[in-house]
Amino acid sequence: MLRRMPPLWLQIAGFVALVVVLGLALAFAIVQLRGPRLEVVRPVAIPENEVNPAIWGLAFPREYETWLRTKEGRKTLFAGSIPYDKLEEDPRLRVLWEGYPFAVEYGEDRGHAYSVEDVLKTKRIQVLAQKRGGSAPGTCWTCKSANVPSLMAEMGAANFYATPFEQLRERIQHPVSCANCHDPKTMAPVVKQVALQEALQKLGKNPRELSRHELRTLTCAQCHVEYYFAKEPKDYLVFPWEKGTRFEDIEAYYNEKNFADWIHPSTGVPVVKFQHPEFELYTANSTHYLAGVACADCHMPFVIEGGIKYTSHQAASPWHRMEQACGTCHLDIPFIRKRVEIIQTITKGLQDAAENALLETIEALKAIKDNPNADPKLAEEARTLFRKAHMRWDFVSAENSLGFHNPQEAMRLLAESINYARQAQVKALQALQRPQARAP
User: Fold this and answer.
1) Would you call 39 helix, strand, or coil by DSSP?
2) Quick one: CA dihedral 28, 29, 35, 40, positive or negative?
3) Percent of the chain scored above 90 by pLDDT?
């Protein structure tokens, strides 16, 4: 018996349905192959001098919501963003920074959202104001508020720096956020920090002709760097990069200027207090830097939500989000986590050894300080070596990765610190070898 064919219209309908199903399947496959799409934000105009991050958040809600998460405190292996007293944890620091505001207060930093609140609370500002007999300089606001770039443009950098800290207080409303790093018209990352613009020019770079890739690191280098306050113009913020950005370049710069942040009382040695030189350590030919990895790649990784890809603005340690921060390049996340642990544990051990060596050297230098019978040549050599040792230790200690940004460089500097400290200790002891020089 012959099977009857379905009507022609039914055959056509079935064929059309098959084509539709195959088309949908193909479209779905293409979307999956293309991966997440970049979000097209709604057109909210941001005024040129707008510094309130909540206004920026109307156009970029996901970025704003992640920026708000910088209020979250989380502990990492050795640090994190939960405040604690580092002087209580490591009392050796009080001796190493004796006579300087850091010996009065030194705590773990919180996230960007707390930058204004925390600088107002710190005792270091109060100590600095007391030493000056009035107020700390306006320079202390430079890396603490989104209001700063527009205020500097209005007042001029030199005038802003020289204005008393308290006098600027009423004009500071918002913490470090969108306006510090982005052009409100194009949303492109930009260098707004005057000190960084000037430092880049000294290195032969035009701050207005930087690639987007360079800016993903240099916007962070607006603040995560070593700096000092020049005497002329008064309290002018300077990045000591005239000779280069590596440690020895900075050391040579400071030595040439006979610069010191303070005189260490127990030893009489003029020393430098370094300030979070993350950029300088990272760019000293670290593995990741040479591979083209930018700061934002790890500290502000891309996030995918509902097929939308955007940059997390929860600038923080990658320790708690390694899948996002490291997983782009590394497949074995447990192995990477173990590598971080090994690097930081070794660095911490060397840092402790350097601190112990410096403390013993301080005791040796105390014995020759103000001792007229100590051999002057050996005593001066001991003090010079102590300065070299102290600077190397403090450079790594002040840097916030505990060596991970550049393990080889951090370990090299700490090893040199230990070596110079022990040499200084020996020189100080030799200076007392003359019979009449021995301490009573």
Assistant:
1) coil
2) negative
3) 83
